[in-house]
Amino acid sequence: MNVSGRPTRTIWPSADGTAVEIIDQTRLPHTFATVRLATLDDAAHAIRAMLVRGAPLIGAAAAWGLWLAIRANASDAALAQAHATLLTTRPTAVNLRWALDRVQAQLVRLRPAERAAAARVLAIEICDEDVALNRGIGAAGLPLVKAIAARKKLGEPVNILTHCNAGWLATVDVGTATATIYSAHDAGLPVHIWVDETRPRNQGASLTAWELLNHGVPHTVIADNAGGHLMQHGRVDLVIVGTDRTTATGDVCNKIGTYLKALAARDNGVPFYAAVPSPSIDWTVRDGVSEIPIEERSARELTHITGRLPDGLVATVALTPEGSPAANPAFDVTPARLVTGLITERGIAEASADGLQRLFSEK
After folding, report:
1. Which one is predicted more confidently, 363 or 115?
2. Per 3-state DSSP, what percentage of the chain is helix, strand, and coil (rounded to 5)?
3. Number of H helices, E strands in the chain
């Protein structure tokens, strides 16, 4: 997607071929900066500290992390240790395990001397596949927007609400929830996006708004709690969210607050869709509420906030009374019964075991 008019991915191999470069998402939207990852520890830190975030991008970064590790030591023991190190960085997004298992399974069949080159090829392959999957999601979701636009007055925008950042910054490129948005916008359909701020890390206000602004998509940032009000007054036509893990039965685990949006959408008759690339489907899990581990992040993310002061200085300030405890569950689970459909690269599935099985019969 575009950064100041220049097509950009979120992760790419360095020009000298010895490292990986990423956008440091912790510094957006006020500063666009890139970071060089040269070691396994660099990659693990980038994932854990959320320099890279979003389930698909976490998977891609983990694949590159294995390459960095194998370049230093290609033994079986080092490969197993690197896999274990990266797997512990973020517990909820299934793409992390998917990418690590995929790369490890292929590398163990090779002689150590062959592993570094193969790991690099696999990391590039995973990144390119992610872009293709997301373009497929955009194509599958476009008819939803076209159908709504056809019922609107000429020039009246389709109002889409999204939560957190399921944009190109959460993937290698294009995004999951935003894939449909970008497809519609680039096709000339009038769209307007309600961007949830998404406390406590504010990925909507900081990241989704930034990328929509750079791509020229009309949008408005709203407080997380404003979505239900807008739906009550007919100002939301469609909700599209991302997913960090979707169960084999259609439950959707996504950024905290997604469940509340689904409840409001159901009460107001607003279609609620999740954009689900197939690597985000966990075919081993059937009950999202009881089986998906929910990451508990630092209370500081909730008690403090970072912003830009009038003089341009970026500063972090406290929000809560000193001494007040805070809890910070990072995700929640939206039951399949509240999900209108799952937008995948193979088409739109009913949020159910049968619905997913029809599109992914090989599973």
Report:
1. 115
2. 45, 20, 35
3. 13, 18
- C-alpha closest to that of 217 among 235, 183, 191: 191
Q: Which pair of structure tokens corresponds to residue 92?
A: 């909820």
Q: Is 311 a residue of the active site?
A: no
Pairing mode of beta strands 238-241, 158-162 = parallel
Angle between helices 112-151 and 55-72 in degrees, nearest 10: 170
Task: Identify the burial level of 271 via C-beta atoms within 10 angstroms of its C-beta, where 0-12 means exposed, 13-18 middle and 19 or more buried.
Answer: middle
CA geometry: angle at 144 spanning 214 and 288, to 5°?
Answer: 90
Q: Measured at the alpha carbon of residue 115, what is the angle toward residues 23 and 106, in degrees to the nearest 5?
A: 90
Q: Is 349 exposed, middle or buried (0-12, 13-18, 19+ CB in 10 A)?
A: buried
Record: fold of 2-128: Four Helix Bundle (Hemerythrin (Met), subunit A) (1.20.120)
pLDDT digits (tens, 9 = 90+) for 38-66: 999 999 999 999 999 999 999 999 999 99
Pick the CATH number of 141-359 from 3.30.70.1140, 3.40.50.10470, 3.40.50.720, 3.40.50.460: 3.40.50.10470
CB 359 within 8 A of CB 346: yes
Let me know the angle formed at the C-alpha of 296 by 294 and 299, rounded to the nearest 5 degrees: 155
Catalytic residue among 237, 244, 282, 332: 244
Give the model confidence (pLDDT) of 319-333 as tens digits: 999 999 999 999 999
75 neighbors 112 (Cβ within 8 angstroms): yes
**Pair 281, 248: CB distance under 8 Å:** yes
Question: 164 vs 99, 194, 312, CA distance in Å?
Answer: 23, 11, 25
pTM: 0.93
